[in-house]
Design goal:
Layout (H helix, E strand, L loop, with lengths): L1 H7 L20 H7 L5 H9 L14 H6 L1 H18 L8 E8 L10 E7 L1 H15 L2 H4 L13 H17 L7 E7 L9 H10 L4 H12 L2 E6 L2 E6 L12 H21 L17 E4 L2 E7 L2 H18 L9 E4 L5 H11 L9 E2 L2 E2 L6 H4 L2 H11 L8 H10 L6 H4 L6 H16 L14 H4 L13 H18 L4 H10 L11
Parallel strand pairs: 1-4
Antiparallel strand pairs: 1-2, 3-7, 3-8, 4-5, 6-7, 9-10
Helix pairs in contact: 3-6, 5-6, 9-10, 11-12, 12-13, 15-18
Protein name: Reverse transcriptase domain-containing protein
InterPro entries: DNA/RNA_pol_sf, RT_dom
Pfam families: RVT_1
Length: 512
């Protein structure tokens, strides 16, 4: 196991940074001043108290809860350590040691892919990361293009889903025209673990970060050492030579900054006319790609020439960044008018399989078919499995109330933020929760339903339990999306929806 991760964390040594020539500065002198400002006592305290108090222990054997509860005692020492780091760009020895705990994804270990590595850092080290992350977060929208929605304030994962859904719906219905189009769903293999440090450093400088700021960020990145263990047993240690580990607050921001290089390269190819994105309606923006962290969709025309261009730009990005596209897990969806011979040649060039219209993106269906009950039926399966897993437990009414309100009712929230769930599915979900509520501790006894779900949704002073009407909550969540479309008209999803559904008016004035 140790040798596997030692090899995984060892750089390939590629230094092909010519694709960074087109990166333009996005960080202004004023931004650099804010990034390098003197660290304040309140800033460190805020960063610490933003952490979950009961995170798993790192090498220091402490949780954020200890530092939060003892802030009056240890606060000045923590602030001094963080300030010293910002002054010297030097991290004390062993402070950046990280426990890499290997967790089994399934019961039996068959290969190393069945292990999920969890990085556990020292709390004080994470505070330094958090201070820098809080500062950098303020300027992410100026650095990252609108096609990337992850971790950028003001952008949501549902933006990606809505845009992707409209494009996939357009491709499925596109029956006219001689030129087909395709959507490439890319899977990046070990994305966070395959980032070349020289690539990241040069990129930050190209974006306009002050050399001092780059020095601070790179000091946090390159000083890490992993202590690998599984099941509480220490296996060995390794020192990486590339990668940004998923255990600190800054890594997600650094990763999406790296993906901006791929986004810039795609835009360059589009500007030169080498690839052409999808336009779902007249006046809608041409969309060539959508990113959410390492979940990527590329949209272009289907002919061999564009397939070759896409492979060329992906190879350039791989050589420079260290990223690798997992072609076996990636896939291609073709528009309805794409000739079968074109589909075969494009799949052959890219080495990716073709998929149908039953795929998922970011956990939700790519395409909605006529039978919504069949497409969204996975919500019932998900609820049923979760509720059945609680049957073996001896739970009080209070315990059941907590599980229903905090877990069961939250399961469909994600889908309800995007889709209008059929009433039948909402009622089935409520029935599963109601059955769990009234069921006795014995598996063979379903229990008597003394009160229907509608009554149980009323306030407690009226005899209810304040449970949710899922259909009403679905409408409320969609209302949030409606408000975003009405107010954020310059966002990518706002421009696309306006062009397609209300080109001459606003969301409020559109007629159904």
């Amino acid at each position: 196991m140790v040798s596997f991760y030692t090899e995984l964390f060892s750089t390939s040594g590629n230094l092909h940074n010519d694709i960074l020539e087109d990166i333009t500065p996005a960080i202004t002198p004023e931004m650099n001043t804010d990034l390098l400002a003197l660290v304040t006592h309140e800033e460190v305290r805020k960063s610490l108290f933003q952490m979950h108090p009961d995170k798993s222990l790192g090498p220091d054997g402490m949780t954020p809860s200890f530092f939060q509860k003892c802030w009056d005692i240890v606060g000045s020492d923590v602030v001094k350590l963080v300030r010293d780091f910002f002054d010297t760009a030097s991290i004390p020895e062993d402070l950046n040691n990280t426990n890499l705990e290997l967790i089994l994804k399934k019961k039996n270990l068959e290969n190393m892919g069945d292990l999920r590595p969890i990085a556990l850092c020292n709390v004080v080290y994470k505070v330094s990361f958090k201070v820098m992350a809080n500062r950098l977060k303020l300027f992410l929208a100026d650095i990252v293009f609108e096609n990337q929605s992850a971790f950028v304030p003001g952008r949501l994962i549902t933006d990606n889903i809505l845009v992707s859904f409209e494009i996939m719906h357009y491709l499925k219905r596109k029956g006219k025209g001689t030129v087909g189009q395709m959507a490439l769903k890319l899977d990046m293999s070990k994305a966070y673990d395959r980032v070349e440090w020289p690539f990241l450093e040069v990129l930050l400088l190209k974006l306009g970060f002050h050399p001092r700021c780059v020095q601070l960020i790179m000091a946090l990145v390159v000083s890490v050492r992993y202590w690998i263990s599984s099941g509480g047993k220490f296996l060995g240690h390794t020192t990486p030579s590339w990668g940004i580990h998923q255990g600190d607050p800054l890594s997600p921001y650094l990763f999406i900054i790296c993906t901006e290089v791929l986004s810039s390269l795609i835009r360059k190819y589009e500007t030169k006319g080498w690839i052409k994105g999808c336009q779902v309606a007249r006046g809608a923006p041409h969309i060539t790609h959508m990113f959410f962290a390492n979940d990527s969709y590329l949209y272009c025309r289907a002919p061999e020439r564009e397939a070759q261009m896409v492979m060329t730009l992906l190879e350039k990005y791989e050589l420079a960044s260290g990223q690798i596209v997992n072609q076996e897990k990636s896939s291609i969806f073709f528009s309805k008018n794409t000739h079968s011979s074109t589909q075969e040649s494009s799949c052959s060039i890219m080495g990716m399989p073709e998929v149908g219209d039953d795929g998922f993106y970011l956990g939700l269906p790519n395409i909605m078919k006529h039978n919504k009950n069949a497409v969204l039926g996975f919500l019932k399966d998900k609820m049923r499995k979760r509720v059945e897993s609680w049957d073996s437990k001896f739970l009080s009414r209070a315990g059941k109330e907590v599980l229903i309100k905090l877990v069961a009712q939250s399961l469909p929230n994600y889908a309800m933020s995007v889709f209008l769930i059929p009433k039948g599915i909402c009622e089935d979900l409520e029935q599963l929760m109601c059955k769990f509520w009234w069921k006795s501790s014995s598996k063979n006894k379903s229990g008597i339903h003394w009160m229907k779900w509608d009554r149980m949704c009323e306030a407690k002073d009226q005899g209810g339990m304040v449970f949710r009407h899922l259909h009403d909550f679905n409408i409320a969540l969609l209302g949030k999306q409606a408000w975003r479309l009405h107010t954020l008209t310059n966002s990518l999803v706002g421009k696309l929806f306006k062009a397609k559904y209300y080109p001459r008016g606003s969301f409020i004035s559109v007629e159904l």
